[in-house]
Amino acid sequence: MGSTIVAHEVEKSFGTGRGSKRRAVDVLRGVSLAVEPGEMVSIVGPSGSGKSTLLYCLSGLEAADSGSIEVMGRQVVKASRDSLFKTRRDHVGFIFQSYNLIPSLSAGENVALPARLAGRPLTRAQVGEVLESVGLGGREKSRPADMSGGEQQRVAVARVLASSPDIVFADEPTGALDSKNGREVLGMLRRIADDPQRSVVVVTHDLEAASLADRVLVLKDGRVVREMGCSTAGQLLEALGEAA
Ligand SMILES: Nc1ncnc2c1ncn2[C@@H]1O[C@H](COP(=O)(O)OP(=O)(O)O)[C@@H](O)[C@H]1O
Ligand SMILES: [Mg+2]
Q: Among 11, 23, 25, which residue has the most ligand 1 atoms within 8 Å of its CB, making it the best to mutate?
């Protein structure tokens, strides 16, 4: 089986300002990485180093300017809308810091929606099971507004699990949670990557969280400046200090 993600020399810049003040900000300056099946990879680095942009580019939510990104063997850079749509639908799950649930839908409907849009609808029992698996058994009918942040993020995890993606991206998934809920959500992400077929890439500023990963990439100024194996929070703190 091949790599889940192979990225080579990915570059991305944003234009800012107007007229004579117009500047290009180079956010990703040649990022290369690979993610293997069954791996959990953490990305850490200073604020503004390009972590979110990298995750958006790898997942096809944002278009990279140049380089190559293959997700499950499918090219993402400069891919057609149709091809990108299929890659995302068939292979990718994404968890945001702010949960991104649809407020007018119940927890069960939020979980069921992506599978329904993909033409692979879940049964009521399957929706119940996946909610049960994140500790939300019997909460199908709850609305996001009636749930705590931790509960909403667990619905977001259930929504990802329901579509059985090969790769789950999570951008600061515990950034808005207290430490207990944060640990639970991270444990769920870790268990996704314990499946030898599945991979997780998580951006986090929480070094305890990063220490759950099999590999940690340190990003600085749009480049991977260091790669570490499974590391303690203390080792990561030291590496970040050297990168700063
Ligand atoms: N849509 C955008 N337009 C202009 N600049 C952006 C945009 N998105 C991100 N940036 C800039 O790119 C840099 C990296 O941002 P980001 O990827 O969010 O970093 P991180 O997640 O590591 O904090 C920042 O300087 C940010 O201002
Ligand atoms: Mg970010």
A: 25
User: Quick check: pTM over 0.85?
Assistant: yes
Separation CA 52–CA 139 (nearest Å):
31
Q: Measuring CA to CA, which residue among 29, 169, 11, 34 is closest to residue 95?
A: 169
Q: DSSP letter string over 165-224?
A: -SEEEEESTTTTS-HHHHHHHHHHHHHHHHSTT-EEEEE-S-HHHHTTSSEEEEEETTEE
Residue type, position 20, single letter: S
pLDDT digits (tens, 9 = 90+) for 171-216: 999 999 999 999 999 999 999 999 999 999 999 988 888 999 999 9
Q: Which residues form ligand 1's pocket by a CB distance below 6 Å?
A: 14, 16, 25, 27, 45, 47-53
Distance CA 71, CA 92 (A): 9
The whole-angstrom separation of Cα 218 and Cα 76 is 23
Angle of helix 179-194 relative to helix 149-162, nearest 10 degrees, comes to: 10
By CB neighbour count within 10 A (0-12 exposed, 13-18 middle, 19+ buried), where does 68 fall? middle
Provide the token pair at 110: 């939020």
